[in-house]
Amino acid sequence: MRSCVHFFSNIAVHAAFICCAALFLSLNPCRADYTLYTLPGSDLSIMLEGSVTYNPGGTATHRHPRGSLYFNAKDIQVLKLPTTEAVFAKKLREATQSKDVDTMLETAKWALHNGLLDECKTLLSAAWKLDSSHAKIRKLAGLMYYLNRPVTNNSTIEASARELVGGKSMQLSRSKHFFLLHDGDNEKDPRTRKTRPEMRLELLEKVYESYFLTFAFEGLFLRPPTDPLAVVLFSQHADFMQMEKRLGMGLRQVAGFYLPKENISIFYDSGTTPMFQQLQKLNEMFDGMEKDIRRNRVQGGGELIRFANTIELLIDIERESEDISVVSHEAVHQLAGNTDLFPSDGVFVRWVHEGLASFFESSKMARWSGVGVVDRDRIGYYRVLEGDPIRGGIEFIVSDLGFTIEGMLGNQLPAYGQAWALTHFLFHERFDQLIKFYREIQSIDIEVTDGESLKAKAEKLVSTFDECFGDRTTLELEWRRYMRSLRTDMERLAEEIR
């Protein structure tokens, strides 16, 4: 097992890192403030992580990693919760003290699912040191060896991508497993000291490793692709929409999409959410106001200037949050098509594809938050149809009619919510049967051209699902109980530190 030895060669360094990490985390605050800010005059809200100080006069200062924001105290709700790092520190101490490989693997899995990818890999190294003969450790070591190897550059793929998007003059950036065509500037972010292309590639690599490790922890070792994956990042919304129009996809309110036939993901480097658009309007309103306030010494002008600066910072946070959410979602579509999980030439089942991509999609917190995220938005989308005996039932979801019907009604978010919720349950509770279902639907050969073929496809999907999962009535009861007991990540963090 030279590959295992190669990956886990510097064990002393990994062990020292664990000791230092535990010490560092124990010396840092165990709790953080999570601020839910509701934009005045709307029902739009954004969640921010940091620390809050209440000021005289009914204002509050939220210190975010990207800067300080100033709010009217009545516009925010503040939750004091343990940080993910604090919970991990507790689990890390317990795992290292146990000297049990399985406990260390469970802790590594927890770290992976909660966005602590480096900590996950470090624990895998420590588990290897503890027992290098452990079957799962050996397989994980072999997987990591391949994940750490850069793929060979492919000029043909690059040329095809440039031709598709008219990107002869676009810049090219590479990482171990992706190449990124982009047309933006290379100005570095003041916080990360990285350009936006560098930040996008770093995120793509996190999603890449997390994707393979997530399946591996469940016992399924997917084969990494041997060619680089192509990604395009437009800096201008007009260029992105022109590309979408040329492809005739009929998409409007999207920030990215994946083309399975061409095997390319395409993104727009900005925001499309209602919150972002409303913040942009406010920013435009405040544009130029600062000079007038300073020149005319307007009473209360300082507070208006601080609010204007807060809006500007919120735009930056919301844009980064959406970018991370969209990129992680579309990257999983691309990975699934390149690891034979959902071959590009197989039948397209919308709820299957969107359910898995939503399962891996990062939450909108301006950082990579891990796999299987449960937040109030996802739960909220699911609950829209939870009580509907038809549109909220497993048969309707599995038939793949949900996205069509909800699209006709003007809002597909409830369909995404149902696909995410069912996938979340099956991934955690019926994983082997879910993978079997993924394999079985690849043999369905029904081209949808009219109502009859659509009905035939729906019936075949439901019958295949029943063959894989058995009694659907019992499964539905289990799913409903699972969803009622499902807690958001913040609720779970609050409980785990006790």
Automatic annotation (TrEMBL):
InterPro entries: DUF1570 (IPR011464)
Pfam families: DUF1570
DUF1570 domain ranges (all copies): 323-441
Keywords: Signal
Endpoints of the signal sequence: 1-32
Top-level taxon in the UniProt lineage: Bacteria
Name of this protein: DUF1570 domain-containing protein
Organism whose genome encodes this protein: Novipirellula caenicola
